[in-house]
Amino acid sequence: xxxxxxxxxxxxxxxxxxxxxxxxxxxxxxxxxxxxxxxxxxxxxxxxxxxxxxxxxxxxxxxxxxxxxxxxxxxxxxxxxxxxxxxxxxxxxxxxxxxxxxxxxxxxxxxxxxxxxxxxxxxxxxxxxxxxxxxxxxxxxxxxxxxxxxxxxxxxxxxxxxxxxxxxxxxxxxxxxxxxxxxxxxxxxxxxxxxxxxxxxxxxxxxxxxxxxxxxxxxxxxxxxxxxxxxxxxxxxxxxxxxxxxxxxxxxxxxxxxxxxxxxxxxxxxxxxxxxxxxxxxxxxxxxxxxxxxxxxxxxxxxxxxxxxxxxxxxxxxxxxxxxxxxxxxxxx
Length: 333
Fold this sequence. Notes:
alpha/beta; inorganic pyrophosphatase (n-terminal core); Diaminopimelate Epimerase, Chain A, domain 1; 2 domains
């Protein structure tokens, strides 16, 4: 008999799921938070969960908080809510999605929640800092965990086409279109249930991966300036001058990091983008076969086994960073 992976996953958090829906039912005011510099998973999970709660509990006030994205906002996702500090004077439920550490939550006012819940899939030791902390690092996306919760609720609660649209985009984004090693049978079962709501996945992909003619200049820059180390670490550097020339924000510097995926001879690939506001160089690291998040932790970052982020103070630190990634390849991890 074929396994029901959704029920197997839900069995890990049966008591937590019951406690979460009880808190959602209890509070009339709910704020949903996620990490700074949001990606597809952060935004899609945030708006998908908010939509679900609004549609199933129409009398509740539900807000989404954090920074807007430089290109995803208004093209794929709506703008987040802007609320005064006085909103937080009345008791509210806080739900945090897709954040491993509290310091990365985009709006610090989460601290004022009377009750705080977290759904996440990043390695972390901070679950005990929440009233309810639910984390499964084996899942491809925070969306996958939230969907597991939603699809195992009593039948009176419905996941609409609108909510599914956001949640599917989140799952696609963090699974690398179902190519990363974290993709599992559970991932596809969740995807199937989301598709059954009637979402148009062709439309979703078109919006997520839309490019402009100007974007071709960025791709050209990457192809003309990338380097590959002796043992297959590919990377490109975008300084502030490069970003200005290409008319890009530093958040967009990493957009072409996966140009090097599936290239024979490249084992780990990175984008390295200057952020003059810190100042530092922000790094996005990807791999197919090697665990790179331990190196990321060494450089003020972290993340998943094959997808992580880090930073270095200046380009003088770059050779050592590349050497550390080469060691991972040589050690066969």
